[in-house]
Each structure stands twice: as structure tokens, then as C-alpha cells.
Amino acid sequence: MRKSVIAAVAVTLWAAGSAFAQSTLQQQVDRIQQQLQQLGSGNPSPELQQQVQQTAMQLMMLGRGGRGAAPPRAAAPAPYECEPVNPNATPEARALLKTLCDVSGKGILTGQHNFPNERTLDTDRIFDTTGKYPAVWGSDFGFTDGEDKDAITHRDLMIAEARKQAAAGSIVYLCWHMLRPTEDEPGKPGSSWSGSVQARLSDDQWQELIASDSPLHQRWEKYMDTAAAYLKQLQDAHIAVLWRPMHENNGTFFWWGGHPGPYGTAMLYREVDNRMVNVHHLNNLIWVWNQNGPAAGGEFYNFFPGKNYCDVVSYDNYSKLDDRYYYEIQTIADGKPIALGEVGAIPSPEILKSQPKWTFFMTWAGMTGVPPQPPPPDVIVAQRQRLVQQLEDLQKQLQQLGTGTPSPELLQQAQRLAM
After folding, report:
1. pLDDT of 119-151, one tens digit each?
2. CA 248 → CA 179, 292, 300, 322, 407, distances in Å?
3. CB 202 within 8 A of CB 209
4. Strand 358-363 vs strand 338-343: parallel, antiparallel, or unpaired?
5. Measured in Å, how far apart are the chain's first and last C-alpha atoms?
6. How far is CA 53 from the centre of its chain?
7. Which of 59, 83, 275, 390 is the most buried (most CB within 10 A)?
8. What is the pLDDT of residue 9?
């Protein structure tokens, strides 16, 4: 009976030893001896005394950081091995992620966005100027009707272009400026940008959206299903996609963004993952989590969905590419590839030297940095004729005002434009 009491007390003391100083441990040993005496047997047997002393020594070793009694340390997390977060990722998706891992710290892949209904307009401009195509071809699922640049009218042609780009060796990179789930596709050019894509949901609507059995959540699922059908075409064609859903989601300028915390934007991002991977079995996606800068220090962490939901950590910045964003993104990524999801201009050599881990960047449509091409000759002739006609009309107006003929300078300008 007394042996079991001593054993239990010894185990308890061993477990607590690392938290107490040496003097406190000695006091505990003294109390054990007093308790043994109170059991009515006088001094404990030599065997029990030896057991107590051994326990005290182990505790004292713990208090001094002794090796023999130290509890085992938790195993260090395994280093990142460039494995997709989707364990069922296709060989093409695995190869794409491996490409990003390999380029990190050694170079950077160039990228160019193209509006969905313009398909290759900006990419072709770069080729016409440089003789080379960017490594990454980007586009969007769009949201408007008609023949607007963001139209959904020809999504099939956008996907066909993605297949063509992949066949030529480009990396396909897709995002989606989608309408709020409170509205039906397609939207209207102009009005639907501010009236839906950049509008807000009320707090009640947001709570309904993240409730999986709600009517609004089901409407949102139909939007996801629409995109999934097109992404499935690319999977069937053995094409991997850099997929950047709910982009810039720390910002408050898109309806899906600006909701921090466990039931905010990060939760909706995880819902996208669940829908695409577990419902539609899209295994060709490399998941690109994306933030927006400039932003307050530490803000990005409030929107991070967890390391099991992204393969690439990125942010967009149309301003100064400060080092602090680079280090913050690196910290969140914890070894995973990082990228500049959108930029307004090609990063300078100085930036790339001081921030060498970026794996790719993408300049937005219309921001290629390529000088505008001069208009065709027939357009120039028409412009000159229009200007000459305007000057002739001005001459008539001056004569009608009684001021005589135009000045020699004005006549000279008219003659120069007419040449």
C-alpha cells in the first residue's frame, strides 16, 4: 500500500520537476518524508528512503537541466519538400510546383495578364517588342456580357487559348473577378464593377454565405461549379493551372475581401478549396493564396487559411515593393514558393537582387511597359484631314467676326498639318 503511494507521489514529482527550482524540490521531498511518518510506521524503510532520494535527485537534475531526466522534445517539423497540398495532385501539377521550387532564389519567371475577351493582346505586344513570350500567361473568368474586355461571352475561347498557351510551353495562371452571389451572371460593363464585384455584402448576408445549407451559399456554389467545369476541361487536357481564387482578400475593395478571423475570408477560401478538390476532384490546381499591398504590418496573417490550403504565397502591389512585405510573405510561406501575383510594372533589377526568392511576377493587362504602337498610315491621314478641316472652320469663324484673315502662324500650322 505504502509502496504504491510512494510510486504515485514520485511520478507526480517527476512530472512537475522541470517547473520548480531546486529549493522547492527539496521542500517537496521533506513533505513526502513527513507524510510517510504520519502513516504510523515511523521512519520509512531503507528501500523507501532510497526510492525517495532517487526521485529527488531526478527532480533536481531536471531543475538544473540535467540530461538524464529531461523529457523528450517534440520532433521538429519536417522541412518543406515541394509537395502539393492536394495529395492527389496530377503529375502536371506536381511538375509545375517543382518548377517554382527550382527557380526560387535563382531567377524569376515573367508573367502577363490578358483580359478574358482579349485573350493574348498584351502577351502578343510583349512578343512583338522583345521577340519572346512571357513564361506565364494569365487571364480571368470575367463577369460582364457582350463583347466587353471582361465578358464571359467567350469563356470557351479563353479556355481554348489556355490550352494553346500550355501547348506552347507557357504556364497558365487564372483568377476570377466574380460577381456577388446575390446577382446573376452576366453583369453589365461599367456598372457591375462598382455595383457588384467591388460592392459589399451586409453582415447578415456574409453569415448566410458561410452557412453551408443557406440559399446564398448554394447560389455561390453554382458560381464555383461554373468555373470548375472549365477547369475540368484543362485537367482533362493534362494542363496544370496556377489558381488564384479570392485574390487580394485582405482588401475591402472586393466583396469577398476584408473579413478577418476564423469566420471571414479565410473560411470562404477554404470553402473554395473544398468545392474544387473534394466535390469536383480538380487535382490539376496549384493553389495561390494572395494578399494586397500596401497593408499594415501583420495584416496578412489575419487572412491566412492555413498551410494546408496553399501551395504558393503571394501578394499584389502597384506601389513600392518594400522589403518588409517580402519578409512577411516569406515568413507565412515557411519554405513554400512566393510570388508577386500582380504588379503594375516589371520589378527593377535592384528589387530582384534584394528580394531573390520571388518565383514569378505578373504585370496586369495594359501595363506591359511596351510603348504604344503608332497608328497605321491611313489613320494618320484621316487625323490630319480632320485637323485641317477644323482649322478651315476656324478661319471662316474668324472672318465672320470681322477680324480679317488668320495670322501667318495659324496658316503655317494648317499647312504643316496638311503635309
Report:
1. 999 999 999 999 999 999 999 999 999 999 999
2. 15, 5, 10, 17, 57
3. no
4. parallel
5. 117
6. 59
7. 59
8. 42
Split at pLDDT 50, 70, 90, the class of 399 is confident
pLDDT, the chain, mean: 85
- Amino acid (one-letter) located at 264: G
Confidence of residue 14 (pLDDT cuts 50, 70, 90): very low
Q: How far is CA 216 from CA 208, 213, 223, 231, in A?
A: 6, 9, 11, 23
**pTM of the complete model beyond 0.85:** no
